[in-house]
Amino acid sequence: MGEKDFYKILGVDRGASDEEIKKAYRRLAHESHPDKHAGDKEKEEKFKLINEAYETLKDQNKRAQYDRFGYAGAGSAYTEAGFGADFQDIFSEVFSDFFGGARRRPAPERGSDLRYDLEITFEEAAFGAEKTINVPKTVLCNTCAGSGAKQGTQPVTCTGCGGAGQVRFQQGFFSVSRPCPGCRGAGAVIKDPCPECRGAGRVRTVNAISVKVPAGIDTGSRLRLTGEGEYGERGGRPGDLYIVISVLPHPIFRRENDDIICEVPISFPQAALGAEIEVPTIEGTVKLKIPAGTQSGKVLRLKNKGIASVHTGRRGDERIIIEVETPSKLNKRQRELLEEFASISGEDTTPLSKNFFSKVKEIFE
Questions:
Q1: What is the DSSP string of 239-254?
Q2: Is 1 contained in some domain?
């Protein structure tokens, strides 16, 4: 066999590092692999040369001998009869890099997360509450302790794979591993299934779970209960339970951030003359002074009568929006008095009306 330039075959410099040689070999071996070029003798020969070059240059002693004496001095690391004694190491390395390695018995798997939509009242959102919810989910079978086998029995080692959970078969130059069809990769089979779970090791049930709803929570907020999700497969930890909050509407209150909004109607005399009225809050009624001349839409603020922030605990305010009610039905005496009031007042006497009509005049002049 003539002189061979192993560096040229791998496409690296003579001073290339071990990592550069390894990287070049992986790329070329993948490109020229016989399984990708079935029946191509030229590619097969090239693949042999690539392996021969790598087998020599990856070994420090062989590489030093090759650098000093050339191909004849180093000796062939690759026999004409086949792939040589060290090919199994090469195969393991290439197969691991390009095909994901050998399949092993399935590892523990974390359970799925669950979602529960919880409706609460406006007051429960404001002050917090403790609720009990019923969550359907998969849990460990207590009868067989998750083994799936009938009491007094145990899963037995799979005869198809010898408990490895995988089987090997030849594909071209490679020995390929796949999950064992007899045990589906578990390495064991159940001869006598548990009657409760029918061999699954888990059962479907409904769990009653206590949930603490913090004060100040709002629609769209999520509460996470660790470990209250689905059962984990093969000893994996369970998933989590996410509780999504929805606050029911209140008949007289609405919420803006941590403030409470309440629209309060008052009569025309109360608005004109001023008054002291009782207004509702989430903690009961309080007295509120209405200034004389209050207009509809006026906002009066009650400090610290809102909702406590779920993050800081600081309370918002309650904003009272005044709605002045115009009487729709007047008796004869009421009409006479209002007509007298209008006559005495004259037209355009209030600051509001003067301001409005002056603006209208400016627009149309």
A1: --EEEEEEEPPPSSEE
A2: no
| pLDDT digit string, tens, across residues 204-259 | 999 999 999 999 999 999 999 999 999 887 778 899 999 999 999 999 999 999 99
Tell me the C-alpha to C-alpha distance, in Å, between residue 348 and each of 17, 234, 259, 345, 358.
96, 84, 37, 8, 10
CA distances from 116 to 128, 204, 228, 300 (A): 18, 16, 11, 39
Say whether 230 sits in a helix, a strand or coil.
Answer: coil
Domain range for 176:
156-189
Would residue 274 be called left, alpha or beta, if left means φ above 0 and alpha means ψ between -120 and 50 degrees?
left
Helices (H), 75-131: 87-99, 122-127
The length of the chain in residues reads 365
Cα–Cα distance between 84 and 51 in angstroms, integer? 10
CA 32 to chain centre: 42
pTM above 0.85, yes or no: no
**At 308, which CATH number?**
2.60.260.20
Helices and strands (H and E) in the chain: how many: 9, 15
Residues 241 and 136 in one domain: yes
Catalogue the E-assigned strands of 73-157: 114-120, 129-140, 156-157
- Strand 318-325 and strand 259-267: the pairing is parallel
Helix, coil or strand: residue 151: coil
